[in-house]
Amino acid sequence: MTKSFFVESLVKNILIPGIGYGRNAQTFIQNGIKVNGIEISKTAIELAKKHYGNEMTIFHGSVMKMPFDGKKYDGIFCYALIHLLDSKERKKLIQDCYNQLTENGFMVFYSYK
What we know:
The protein has helices at residues 2-8, 26-30, 42-52, 87-99, and strands spanning 13-17, 34-39, 57-60, 73-79, 101-110. The protein is built from four helices and five strands; from the N terminus they run αβαβαββαβ. Strands 3-2-1-4-5 form a five-stranded parallel beta sheet. The chain is an alpha/beta fold.
């Protein structure tokens, strides 16, 4: 659903905090959306590079240390990460994501709780 919304909204680039090995990036990439991610696991980053090569940039580190670049994104997609954080960390993540959003950009957060 998020992919369809982003495509309809003409989103050109997105940031995925907690990108893992890139499973959620594939649908965006296949639809012409440039993806950058943040991931704490070096193993996951290595797997993403095997699958996607240089199609996306993944910053190594904790989402608590955002931003990793000065870039603004049309969209932020955060899947199954925010519920792992405490309330202070959640507030910081949302604010940090907002700070990297272009004017009239979109943020989508999915949580299991």
